[in-house]
């Protein structure tokens, strides 16, 4: 089971074993990682599963899609080059140890 | 410390429980739900789950081990049938007696049933819970044609799934237009055309007079203008009614739902309520009572309820948000368009990418965005942060919506 490392805005790390095929958002939500809300359950309709992913890790992920790109403009915390919507990152066995940093806010 | 009993293992119920622990509440938490399934999300039941593209595991609101690690006691498959706050005992349908100090009612709503001749025939289905979705999905495999009674969100989402599976589908709506409670005529008309373009027949302004059957199974739908629609399967989606029986038995204020204030408090000092079952002050305007059937409300209001239970009363303020997925059409709503007196359409509905901006007394109050997530996000943020989009310029699609936002405070 590939591991995800969630880093909170104040640096606290939480490691969760993900189910391959489930998204980084689902994994956080189901395991009580506060810091990711994911209100719409992964329908690309809310922008509340915002995370920052370093360029090294991003190179292993599928590129930002058009819908994700538009929804990223609606995040409560500032959008940066590292911004992704975690409902669009599906965990696979290749992403062991994926590190995502959570913003300090997900809602306005 | 006396514990908290949460009645209804719903979006709102689960969020109340989790939010209590996030706030450091250390007392006992018991979450009781009438369904035997572990708590799950409702929106996918008429969308991806019905279409077969979501797993059962993904449907769950939280992993099973989380309830254990947060020490949230789950009692599933039992309903609370009696509540006595004076002695702090709840009795369930299974005969369990649960002690509690304070109470959260997150009991949601049940489907409104059609009461016409033949309504009890097999093959006439409703869609509210997981068992409904599993049964309807299974019936859909073999059945044709499909008639959907009700042109609201549930009806249209189910119609889209059925049509996408190649079924012959007719939607029957009693009101003059689809989605009449939620959107303006231009958006209603868009959805009618979009469904028709994909081969769905739509009958607006028609009621159902009765159902015909053969060997106990539905075979036809009789409309009030005399038309008969052949039907192998019928889905009825004509709205829901909040569950208010427990609240009424407790003597709480009930009027179309359980009345709460902006801190999710009922008339009883030890009882809060949240989600689809409540009627409460508009979270954007702060005044005027509303009932919101959405995940956003269930979750945000539940968090307010949890704060109140911990003794930190907060005011429920949020921009209402909602979405609906039908085929490749994503509708996103932000704000409340009720009572709008002006509307500006950005883009051409024929292109299936457009937004409708709603105004009331000169101020932007809501957006319906179809395949325009960026515009939804701009308006959602504006509504949350005191922004506005002057109506006079709002229709100018040569200018990105983001650049038309002015801050009014």
Biggest sheet, spatial arrangement of strands of chain A: 2-1-5
**Widest β-sheet, arrangement of strands of chain B:** 3-2-1-7-19
Kindly state the percentage of residues in helix of chain A.
Answer: 10-25%
Q: Indicate the mean pLDDT of chain B.
A: 96
Task: Report the sheet-strand fraction of chain B.
Answer: 25-35%
Rg of chain B (C-alpha, Å): 22 Å
Q: Give the N-to-C terminal Cα separation of chain A.
A: 34 Å
The largest contact between protein chains, plus residue counts on each side, is:
A-B, 27 and 39 residues
This entry's quaternary arrangement is heterodimer
Cα distance, first to last residue of chain B? 43 Å
Structural class of chain B: alpha/beta
Q: Choose one word for the global shape of chain A.
A: globular
Q: What portion of residues of chain A belong to β-strands?
A: 15-25%
Which whole number gives the mean pLDDT of chain A?
95
Tally of DSSP helical segments of chain A = 3
Total strands of chain B: the figure is 28
In helices, the fraction of residues of chain B equals: 10-25%
Summarize the structure.
The complex is a heterodimer of chains A (108) and B (409). In chain A, 17% of the residues lie in helices and 19% in strands.
What characteristics describe this protein?
heterodimer, A: alpha+beta, three-stranded mixed beta sheet, 3 helices, 17% helix, globular, B: alpha/beta
List the topology elements:
The complex is a heterodimer of chains A (108) and B (409).
Chain A: E1 3-7, E2 13-17, H1 24-30, E3 50-52, H2 55-58, H3 66-72, E4 83-85, E5 98-101
Parallel strand pairs in A: 1-5
Antiparallel strand pairs in A: 1-2, 3-4
Chain B: E1 4-7, H1 11-22, E2 29-33, H2 56-59, H3 64-69, E3 72-76, E4 80-84, E5 89-92, E6 97-99, E7 102-105, E8 109-111, E9 124-126, H4 130-142, E10 146-149, H5 153-164, E11 169-173, H6 185-197, E12 201-204, E13 208-214, E14 217-223, E15 228-230, E16 233-236, E17 240-242, H7 245-249, E18 258-259, E19 271-273, E20 278-281, E21 289-290, H8 295-309, E22 321-326, E23 329-335, E24 342-346, E25 354-360, E26 363-370, H9 373-384, E27 387-388, H10 391-394, E28 406-407
Parallel strand pairs in B: 1-2, 1-7, 2-3, 7-19, 9-16, 10-11, 10-16, 11-12, 18-20
Antiparallel strand pairs in B: 4-5, 5-6, 8-17, 13-14, 14-15, 20-21, 22-23, 23-26, 24-25, 25-26, 27-28
Helix pairs in contact in B: 1-8
